[in-house]
Amino acid sequence: MLSKGLKRKREEEEEKESLAVDALWLDPGHAAVAQAPPAVASSSLFDLSVLKLHHSLQQSEPDLRHLVLVVNTLRRIQASMAPAAALPPVPSPPVESSMADNLLASSDAALSASMASLLEDLSHIEGLSQAPQPLADEGPPGRSIGGAAPSLGALDLLGPATGCLLDDGLEGLFEDIDTSMYDNELWAPASEGLKPGPEDGPGKEEAPELDEAELDYLMDVLVGTQALERPPGPGR
Amino acid sequence: MVLQPSERHYRDWNHRRLGPWCSPTGSPAPLSCETGCGEGSWILVCRLLVPTQVSLLSMEEDIDTRKINNSFLRDHSYATEADIISTVEFNHTGELLATGDKGGRVVIFQREQESKNQIHRRGEYNVYSTFQSHEPEFDYLKSLEIEEKINKIRWLPQQNAAYFLLSTNDKTVKLWKVSERDKRPEGYNLKDEEGRLRDPATITTLRVPVLRPMDLMVEATPRRVFANAHTYHINSISVNSDYETYMSADDLRINLWNFEITNQSFNIVDIKPANMEELTEVITAAEFHPHHCNTFVYSSSKGTIRLCDMRASALCDRHTKFFEEPEDPSNRSFFSEIISSISDVKFSHSGRYIMTRDYLTVKVWDLNMENRPIETYQVHDYLRSKLCSLYENDCIFDKFECVWNGSDSVIMTGSYNNFFRMFDRNTKRDVTLEASRENSKPRAILKPRKVCVGGKRRKDEISVDSLDFSKKILHTAWHPSENIIAVAATNNLYIFQDKVN
């Protein structure tokens, strides 16, 4: 339920392998570059960057500097791999690792969208903690594509108090809350998922009106509004 | 606690000649006599190690500080990740040296007083105080752990008998007061010597309690906690020259605080885009000007420095000056941006220059010239051809700090393999030294280190491929007025001093 912040693990230095890659693409004037096709070297670097991005997004609280630098580097590589296209969809170079397969399968839009949606949600979190703000999460449609797997994983870790407030309905939001102190014999239990009513809540005679009033009240409580705009309901 | 025989003599081998500086021709040559560099050879004064047990020791017994220092060396095998030093800072007089570690502890060392009998002990530092500054916390809203690692310590100038410092982790800044107590009151009327209350009926006379000397006790108390102002991770704190305010900087925002007010702070820089999709740059370091309380600088992950004047507007989103060096087209690569990311920015003591550290270089900028630095020093240019492997193992993201000496004539920064580098701005000479336990043998003469790039490797050189990238010197400090430096290598703190005849 409650997750620990994942520490970024330092990857083992694979010197021999990487030295070859270094020579391949880094120095344009180097003899090795002339021998090897640049696309191959770029693609391995692309894979590496995508893996790093994936790993970074999986963190509960990604290191923003690391994330931004990796994303910018990825954009550079993408730009060099498909310079002709105006809006380059990610060209799929031969991929070795299966993990990269899933990520490369998605389009460029989805990749940036998944990162963007994560950053959006980070900002939504901030909005929740600072002031009442609209919590509707308007993630780009590309979010549901496979490339969103890492960001969704991160969203799960962020917990229920995120942009999915309105998506799942209120029931999911209150699963964890102990409602025993709010149980009131005046309440007619309409359904399992119905919510902790206010202590001096309105009467229950009229169910449809109660639902609306109850939801409004609960929304007010959630966003921390001090004054109840609605007076106690009928019967009190 | 039993001291092993070897530790009793650890102070005998304090004076390690690290060798003279090398002139560009390679032959050893003494530096010119100037206030910045002294005679040019560096001596290991002491190596201090901070095991986890030390705080328990100091509470249990009346131990003199020499014993505590000895136990530092013995407990090498107990060192844990929590003991990794994450920040080092001298205070304004150089009398105190503070370290913060990953476990949230602060350890303060005090310079040994000079005495005529023991001149050779000048420059040694002993433990003065140890306290737990930050504890691991949990953010319930986001279900995230908040690391207790101390990111930065900054001292306040001393204004009375007590010492004050700011320490910060990722989210919370704390103001600590460190004070001495060497007297205690005796002769209470209502309590006896053990502290038990007396029966008032037995009291027939009154007396005035007197202060009697007691063994020195150093207490650290948190005086202020500045919390809940940073959504992102704090990377810098800087005390203003007005001594009333300070700033804290995270990845996207900089806040201005008054020391007296903990529930409010002013946001003075905010680079968070309205749409986080557009985020391409973060703040990496920030510092106030040493004399002008309205001026500060902050650096970015794109290798730029912005100088801001708080008099211009409340929100300093528009800079007064913008420092950026154009990219060298011959060195362009996919990693150009990452290696240009500035990891540290420091004003010179004079306030005329700023120094920045990026992955491969240290640069000195004149505040009056924004289009390029006036000096660039290569720290470890041999890594330029290894950037891909360093990207792969994330070493390319390491954040090295840099420091000025007291007279702004020498700058110092760390590297890998426990190497650290010094650059003399006047003579243009540089030296590479090593802070390592293996090389700190009694009476051995250590030489300046050299990395061999290619071709034939000379006898004392180290090849690039043999460098240990897990041994990195990220944090160093230079005494404000003397040639004493503190170098943090993992959980070891090395104190070096130049040999003055």
From TrEMBL, chain A:
GO terms for cellular component: nucleus; sarcoplasm. It holds the Pfam family SERTA. GO terms for biological process: negative regulation of cell growth; positive regulation of transcription by RNA polymerase II. Residues 189-211 are annotated as: Disordered. Residues 38-85 form the SERTA domain. Residues 197-207 have a biased composition (Basic and acidic residues). InterPro entries: E2F-SERTA_domain_protein (IPR052262), SERTA_dom (IPR009263). PROSITE patterns: SERTA. This is SERTA domain containing 1. It comes from Cebus imitator (Panamanian white-faced capuchin). The gene is SERTAD1.
Automatic annotation (TrEMBL), chain B:
InterPro entries: PP2A_PR55, PP2A_PR55_CS, WD40/YVTN_repeat-like_dom_sf, WD40_repeat_dom_sf, WD40_rpt. One of its GO terms (cellular component) is protein phosphatase type 2A complex. Keywords: Repeat, WD repeat. The keyword Repeat applies. GO terms for molecular function: protein phosphatase regulator activity. Belongs to the phosphatase 2A regulatory subunit B family. This is Serine/threonine-protein phosphatase 2A 55 kDa regulatory subunit B.
